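re: that complex we talked abt at group meeting.

here r the seqs, copy pasted straight from the sheet so there may be weird spacing, ignore it
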Amino acid sequence: MVMLRKKVKELVLIDRMAKVFKTADPLVVVSIGDDVAVVQGDQGKYLLYTCDMLVESVHFKKNENFEKIGYKAMAVSVSDIAAKGGIPRYALVSVGLPPKRVDRFIRGLMMGMKRCAKKFGFSIIGGDTNRSRHLVVDVFMAGEVEKKNLVLRSTAQVGDLIFVSGSLGGSLKHKHLDFTPRLPEARFLVKNFKINSMMDLSDGLGMDLNRLVRSSRVGALIFENKIPQSSDSLGINSALYDGEDFELLFTLKSREAFKLLSQIKNSKEFKFICIGRITDLFDGVRMIKNDCRMLEIPWRGFRHF
Amino acid sequence: MVMLRKKVKELVLIDRMAKVFKTADPLVVVSIGDDVAVVQGDQGKYLLYTCDMLVESVHFKKNENFEKIGYKAMAVSVSDIAAKGGIPRYALVSVGLPPKRVDRFIRGLMMGMKRCAKKFGFSIIGGDTNRSRHLVVDVFMAGEVEKKNLVLRSTAQVGDLIFVSGSLGGSLKHKHLDFTPRLPEARFLVKNFKINSMMDLSDGLGMDLNRLVRSSRVGALIFENKIPQSSDSLGINSALYDGEDFELLFTLKSREAFKLLSQIKNSKEFKFICIGRITDLFDGVRMIKNDCRMLEIPWRGFRHF
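got the structure back, here u go
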């Protein structure tokens, strides 16, 4: 329960936004508080809306490769849409640009954005350009998902097994600017299995798993020796708290999990790793360490405020 | 033709974006280059998407009233959607916040946004909050319009009369932070008349009328003595170039215009003023001055770069 008492300012802010902006529109399925808003669409579909802002010297350095920033700005939203089980359709991009760097923007940012759009099959259909002292890139993305394939983060069930789609930690060294959103993986999952809950790992497993169990009103038990660490990871704390992994975190019943594991046994395309199981609400998030001690995983990780 | 040769950097940028991001998706009706993207929806409707970014010390001063900034951030997008003949439905907002001013944001910005949402009947369903050195507010808005009511800026016809929905100039003194998007006016127009083209005036009549005629491949002749000036206007140049008026600029056939004028003759709700007519492409935008001289209206106004 420790994490429930911890005050993470960003989350307090989002909670207040959710309260102030509460809507009575019956077509809104998921509103503020999740990474993606979900709205009733026609023909058995939901519409998915998300936005993600990248700010110079917060999310990237001033002299970072512009092409990669453009790619990342789009990829972050693709990852959000994928984690709902959906596909990205349209993107709009607002850019705040230091006047001296307008030309570099044209060559760099746009090429990276286009690369991402091509790779994941969506169209960039609008934008707004503004003067700004430092570079700000904000991407809005609209996607869609068949109603039966929508997965939320708030629907994990006690007894579910917990999976991640790849190795964690050390992303800020290289990977964070050039990661591959797990769109094919997520679509494979929602089309073939009953996925109970899913989200993408943007702020680190430690914080994001706490988010998932908090919104599902459950707990979680994970195993240190099961958590896959990337080659850039500096140890278990790195894998738990570095953030920007952009892997999928999902849960499903054990019977479904065995079906999944047997189907991907010989797959070179997909890798899904079981790291623990969903437990009762009052357990919070706990980890069995390699020395068999039990450790509470507090709600921390990358914080904006 | 002077304005066609003028290089306005922002427009060059948008042209390049339109080229780089060109989409083959047959569902996209209007893409980059307009204020609003238009996509095929179901049930006889189009979906409208727009985004508008406000940046501290470009669009507002550091110590401006936060409630008003929140209102304006939303109202700018409402104005865009209205100018397409549509209604706003959902908004998402990304905010870059200086950490020291987070609490003022909560009290101010959100209240202003909520006021706008309530006034114009849309829901705020998502957002992203980030650390930033100066305040940046980017609003994405999704709206919809019945297919028969969609109006573009690119479809003005030679012979159309040109109207505005209110007085122009001097907006930066007071009005720009507290303007009323012309949503009921636009809906009244598209429901009752055949409006050939429409846009909202954000960068000043001089620049925006040039945009309208350029995208419609026509010209325009306006009359100085017909242009309604607000009480804060400092003269005709103020009315032409100040920007941030957020009035509607629209054109319709003269027969429709007479119908419109007779319908609103005794109206206290609506005010539409005829300021000129659409002419041939090669005329550019020209104005008959009060002393009967003819003046070319060049493509200038507020520029971001």
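couple things i noticed - The radius of gyration of chain A is 19 Å. Residues 34-148 of chain A form a domain with the 60s Ribosomal Protein L30; Chain: A; fold (CATH 3.30.1330.10).
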